[in-house]
């Protein structure tokens, strides 16, 4: 990092703030989907519903089973009641006839009349009168006088029972010899004086009972049967003709004794449900139906209910799926809208038919439009600011808290282009920071870094840009100012780069010109110095001439003895000394006039002042000036020797010139050194400063002299200030002027 440029982040384009990471990258939605939730809700509602309906159906089936049982039992009971009522009638009429006086008095003709009249109320029935020996004595089925048959054994066994128990018996089904078919009836014992007189039978064809079964409208598949005490069929609702008077199958016989519900297996091997009703007369009525048929309605109900329930459940699931699609579809539209918004496009609002989603989409659209409008105005503002920044002849950039460049104008990018980090690193090599002492500046000392630490760098530091293939090497001035957020803490910095190469070149030119001027002023001083130097050189040269003359005399005076040789050596030594002195004067002169001497050197302040004064005083020597030189103070200075010599020369020359017409000509030159500076004062007893120029003394071309150019003092000030010192003038208390200048001393370290 050299100028606050941090290459670690992907460099945002100038003027484009880095946006938030787009939603969706790495986003893993969790939980149940809407469809799953809806199906779950439906299931949660449907399961109790199904259970409830199963329960209801179960109860319904139970009830239906009960109903069916009730119905079949009722059928058996009602048939039995009818049979009993019928038989009861026969028994009652039989008993009444048995007590007839005509019968008791054996008037059979009269009795026959009574019996025929009684039979009018019992259609299909007839009266047979049997003598105890089994011979029929009367039969209303036959005409009077017709031969009468004997009663069969089956009738007589009934008669015996009736006489023995002295009660009416219901006969089992027999084949009647007169009626010619299966016959049943009620047998009445007729007693006289306690002994059997007649056996009176009210007979009726078994078919009469079949009518009882058929008048009852029983459901299809039900078979009703009347079975007598012996287990023979009296009547059957199905196949009556075939079965009447014949023994019932074992199944029927089995249920005769049950009185209630039973389950049996039919002759064909099919399971049957039966209801039996038993009469105290010994007969039984049974109703049977196939178990499958009996339970079919229940099964049908159950099946229908199951089908209905599953259909409802299925429908609900489908409905949930459909509803989910109706919801997920619009939500997908909403999502798509958001994605488009992220991409900076309008969300494409279309009504989805779901008001909530439509509201959201509409709000999204409004938001998108607002954002777009704001973005547009932001961009406009930005381009305005960029335009302003770009016309500045200065590179300006905004640096964030981490040292990253947020925005920079064209001139800034000349030095710090927005390129990929790897290239930035390379680019940073091009920057070299140097301070005034020629030392490199560490990265943390760069202006932006300093500004971010709250240390404004203004008007900036000079840094050298080494240049690359697009931008030539140049000197720059880099300044940076911190800026603060609302909370007052530093939130970034503004960094400025100015190309100061031209400025520096101008400065250089100015310096060259100045040096030229200095040289010129020195050359112009040469004229005045010539006489002084001639005098100065004259002395050693005269001395050399005198010494050489002495030498000649010694050599010409004859043989050289020890004493003369010594004298000769001394003369030659003095000659050489004077010649060296003359050479030194010329060397100093040459050095003074030489051009372009520019380097800084560490010299002793006393040494340099003494040397400078020697040269300057050479010019003053013949002017009767009394000089007091006091320059033996310690300390070293970093200076351009020739320039300081020139300053001293100018000040001494001015002082001497100012005293030209003075009576008292005293020049006091004094060097004082303190802790960190040295001060040289040059006090004269001359005319003093002319009031009209006193305040413009150090300006160029200010002179009171007819021959004066007025540049001496301005040159002095330039030189002293370039050495970080100051020059000033003040009146000398005893008359005349004191010129003073100070320069910084080099410290021990
Ligand atoms: P010049 O000597 O060519 O005039 P300078 O810049 O050296 O140019 O001096 C400017 C003016 O300052 C002089 O003309 C003179 O009036 C005044 N001046 C300089 N030194 C002294 C001095 N020691 N005493 C009085 N006046 C001085």
TrEMBL record:
Residues in PAC domain copies: 459-512
SMART domains assigned to the protein according to its UniProt record, in alphabetical order: HATPase_c, HisKA
Region (Disordered): 1-22
Biased composition range(s): Low complexity: 9-21
TM stretches of this protein: 38-58, 301-324
SUPFAM superfamilies linked: ATPase domain of HSP90 chaperone/DNA topoisomerase II/histidine kinase, Homodimeric domain of signal transducing histidine kinase, PYP-like sensor domain (PAS domain)
Alphabetical UniProt keywords: ATP-binding, Kinase, Membrane, Nucleotide-binding, Phosphoprotein, Transferase, Transmembrane, Transmembrane helix, Two-component regulatory system
Reactions it catalyzes: ATP + protein L-histidine = ADP + protein N-phospho-L-histidine
Span of domain Histidine kinase: 532-747
Assigned EC number: 2.7.13.3
InterPro entries tied to this protein: HATPase_C_sf, HATPase_dom, His_kinase_dom, HisK_dim/P_dom, HisK_dim/P_sf, PAS-assoc_C, PAS-like_dom_sf, Sig_transdc_His_kin-like_C
GO molecular function terms noted in the UniProt entry: ATP binding; phosphorelay sensor kinase activity
Name this protein carries in UniProt: histidine kinase
Organismal lineage: Bacteria, Pseudomonadati, Pseudomonadota, Alphaproteobacteria, Hyphomicrobiales
